[in-house]
């Protein structure tokens, strides 16, 4: 261990010297020259090539084009390795115009670099690099202090399983921040749980000190009686017939455009993806979104700039990557700013006293080939400030959205003078869509209408609707696609449209032939999360504030559902991004480890999701493959990549382990140039190499000449793994066998699990 400390100090000194060597450069870059010019104001024009042109007022500088801006950015800041995608935008506001350049990684673990280049001067006004930080891990557990702190109220509580937004993970490993244990005791009334009330206690796992105590308790006078409620069987029937899962199209919110396929899923209708059944009336309460739960269980343009100049003909030529060249070519096919502005004004009347204050060309997050021009106008100031924003598709000129601020100052507190009913407002909205998008109108169905209430004018008076909000949802093959459609808001006094938003993607809709059916989907929901009786406080979806703003109901609902939807063809549980997740209670349940010596280690890792097995079997004595071990080690550091949907794997060509290999390389578990054989069995010396690297001791292990290997078979250990073998044995990770290290011996899956548990305990 003494030699290990010396090696660690050597590594630390080297890292410190490297940091000190680059520090002066970083300091110099943060302090621009003293003779830097002040802000420049640009008179803008745009030609059909998509490149912004113009001159600074005074005629001193020529505006910088996109290609020139990319060169300036790359000369100043090398693009970090791995950022394989590139997009551009344009932003004009406050008298300045900027090219916004973004390099980013298309897959996991992400990362990006953003640069803002002044389109008039070529100066860099902003730069930000974000690369993935080391993964962290939080914990929650069970203290036993609630009864001591609230003995009487504690008698009226019931221990609750983990809530849907938190997953309890036993404290096996952690980063070196404080570990906190928290547990919730929910209140019971008339023998029924009321999860909005209860006791929460938080304790430090490092010091044992109480770090938090929270009591939430309210007057019990407004709870309906628990007697007379429908049975759970009756609630199940209501669920099946009136508010069960429905078939929808769904798209994960990951970049990739058309390459990201739509899925057919079953999920519960309504905004909260929850079912709430009145236990006394036997009717759904949130079928149409009428009620909801507040507590659902289930770079800037100011300051100094870094002045840069374009390289002269004698300077080194800036090389462009293929994605950069593609982005520059694409920009030339888009509408110019002037033409986009003309299109925006053709859809929405802009008052003469409104001044154009901003123009932005924005990249769509999900679709690489989709960009939007957005324009902002303002009028007045202070409490009388008015504004308007209009966005059009940068390729087609279609109206994407507009919004205007009508309520300002004390006008917002005045009761509206209702001149248009909800029916009138809906007709106005419908006619607008029909005229603007007649083809798309034929592909939508009406979803919902909700009034936006004005101020309360009396202590018991319900306010008047100041406007009405309407939603239409896109359909295909008679199935709804809720992520696409139209949203409009119509003023109840003027009858004008205050807000318009169209979401419409170019996607392919899979054929529903072969889905499991609504009955089977309902069975799956009820099997995974049976209906539970409870008291819940529900609020009107209308959202107005008054004396009857909320009410406690006795209900049946799905209290602890750990999934968001089902795959419509297989019934597989899916999360909110459409990724597969395990069924409740399935982790750690293996049928072939009951009498195995490694049972405890396997079940511990399985409870964390670090190890898995198919068909309910772990196969403990099978050889662990390199793909399996590397996956276990990456997961042991808190990186569960199965729940992430990288674009590059959507075509099904990428093997399941590739994301873990990529992450292992980033984390240093496998080294540059190493190419693991995914199906090859892991030997003891390979296990030593990977586990020591996982602990961050690669540099120390490389000092192989400082270690004495007292193994009878030391000569059989590969030269580059001698330090790893010595450290793994010295730290008790891999035990010698009869004085031998047995470097070529194949490691079983159960043995690998035991060693990973040791590794995690050492990190604790």
Provide key terms for this protein.
764 residues; alpha+beta; 12-stranded antiparallel beta sheet; 4-stranded antiparallel beta sheet; 24% strand; globular
Question: Can you put this structure into words, describing what you see?
Answer:
With 764 residues, this protein is of the alpha+beta class. The chain has a domain at 599-763. The chain has 17 helices and 26 strands. The strands form five sheets. A twelve-stranded antiparallel sheet has the order 6-5-4-3-15-16-17-18-22-21-20-19, covered by helices on one side. β3 (85-93) and β4 (96-104) form a beta hairpin. α12 crosses α13 and α14 crosses α16. The longest helix has 28 residues, at 2-29. It is globular. Residues 1-62, 134-144, 161-177, 294-314, 543-548 and 643-652 have low confidence and may be disordered.
Provide a compact summary of the structure.
This protein has 764 residues and is an alpha+beta fold. Helices cover 23% and strands 24% of the residues. It has a domain at 599-763.
């Amino acid at each position: 261990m003494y030699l290990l400390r010396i090696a660690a100090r050597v590594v630390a000194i080297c890292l410190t010297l490297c940091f000190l060597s680059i520090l002066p450069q970083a300091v110099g870059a943060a302090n621009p020259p003293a003779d830097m010019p002040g802000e420049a104001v640009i008179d803008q024009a745009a030609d059909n090539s998509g490149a912004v042109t113009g001159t600074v007022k005074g005629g001193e500088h020529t505006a910088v084009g996109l290609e020139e801006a990319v060169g300036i950015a790359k000369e100043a800041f090398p693009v970090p390795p791995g950022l394989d995608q590139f997009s551009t935008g344009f932003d004009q506001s406050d008298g300045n115009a900027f090219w916004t350049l973004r390099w980013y990684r298309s897959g996991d673990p992400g990362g990006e670099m953003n640069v803002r280049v002044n389109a008039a001067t070529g100066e860099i006004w902003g730069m930000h690099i974000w690369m993935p930080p080391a993964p962290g891990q939080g914990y929650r557990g069970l203290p036993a202090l609630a009864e001591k702190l609230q003995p009487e109220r504690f008698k009226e509580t019931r221990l609750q399983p983990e809530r849907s937004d938190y997953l309890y993970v036993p404290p096996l490993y952690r980063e070196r921040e404080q570990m906190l244990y928290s547990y919730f005791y929910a209140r019971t009334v008339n023998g029924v749980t009321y999860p909005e009330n209860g006791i929460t206690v938080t304790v430090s796992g490092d010091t044992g000190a109480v770090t938090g105590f929270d009591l939430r308790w309210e007057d019990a006078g407004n709870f309906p009686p628990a007697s007379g409620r429908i049975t759970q069987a009756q609630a199940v029937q209501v669920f099946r017939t009136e508010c069960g899962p429905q078939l929808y199209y769904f798209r994960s919110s990951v970049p990739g455009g058309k390459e990201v396929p739509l899925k057919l899923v079953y999920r519960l209708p309504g905004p909260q993806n929850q079912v709430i059944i009145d236990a006394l009336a036997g009717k759904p309460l949130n079928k149409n979104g009428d009620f909801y739960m507040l507590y659902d269980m289930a770079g800037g343009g100011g300051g100094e700039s870094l002045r840069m100049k374009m390289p002269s003909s004698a300077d080194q030529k800036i090389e462009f990557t293929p994605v950069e060249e593609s982005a520059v070519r694409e920009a030339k096919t888009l509408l110019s700013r002037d033409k986009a502005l003309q299109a925006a004004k053709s859809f929405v009347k802009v008052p003469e006293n409104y001044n154009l204050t901003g123009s932005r060309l924005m990249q769509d997050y999900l679709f690489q080939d989709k960009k939007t021009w957005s324009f902002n106008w303002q009028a007045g100031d202070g409490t009388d400030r008015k504004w308007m924003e209009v966005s059009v598709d940068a390729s087609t000129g279609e109206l994407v959205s507009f919004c205007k601020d009508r309520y300002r100052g004390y006008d917002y507190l005045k009761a509206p003078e209702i001149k248009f009913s909800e029916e009138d407002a809906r007709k106005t909205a419908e006619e607008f869509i029909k005229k603007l998008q007649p083809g798309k109108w034929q592909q939508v169905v009406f979803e919902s209408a909700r009034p936006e209430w004005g101020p309360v004018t009396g202590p018991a008076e319900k306010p008047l609707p100041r406007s009405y909000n309407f939603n239409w949802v896109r359909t295909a093959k008679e199935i709804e696609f809720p992520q696409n459609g139209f949203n409009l808001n119509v003023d109840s006094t003027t009858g004008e449209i205050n807000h318009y938003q169209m979401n419409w993607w170019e996607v392919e809709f899979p054929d529903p032939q072969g889905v499991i059916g609504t009955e089977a989907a309902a069975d799956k929901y009820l099997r995974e999360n049976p209906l539970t009786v409870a008291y819940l406080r529900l609020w009107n979806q209308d959202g107005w504030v008054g004396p009857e703003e909320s009410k406690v109901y006795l209900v049946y609902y799905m209290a602890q559902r750990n999934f968001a939807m089902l795959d419509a063809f297989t019934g597989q549980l899916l999360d909110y991004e459409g990724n597969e997740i395990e069924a409740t209670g399935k982790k750690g349940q293996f049928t072939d480890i009951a009498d195995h010596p490694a049972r405890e280690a396997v079940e511990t890792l399985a409870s964390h999701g670090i190890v898995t097995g198919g068909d309910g079997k772990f196969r403990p004595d099978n050889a662990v493959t390199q793909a399996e071990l590397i996956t276990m080690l990456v997961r042991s550091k808190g990186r569960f990549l199965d729940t992430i949907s990288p674009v590059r794997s959507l075509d099904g060509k990428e093997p399941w382990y590739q994301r873990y290999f990529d992450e292992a390389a980033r984390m240093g578990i496998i080294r540059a140039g190493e190419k693991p054989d995914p199906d090859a069995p892991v030997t003891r010396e390979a296990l030593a190499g990977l586990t020591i690297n996982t602990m961050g001791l690669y540099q120390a292990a490389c000092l192989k000449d400082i270690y004495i290997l007292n193994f009878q078979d030391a000569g059989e250990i590969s030269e580059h793994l001698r330090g790893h073998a010595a450290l793994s044995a010295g730290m008790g990770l891999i035990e010698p066998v009869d004085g031998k290290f047995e470097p070529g011996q194949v490691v079983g899956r159960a043995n690998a699990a035991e060693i990973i548990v040791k590794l995690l305990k050492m990190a604790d």
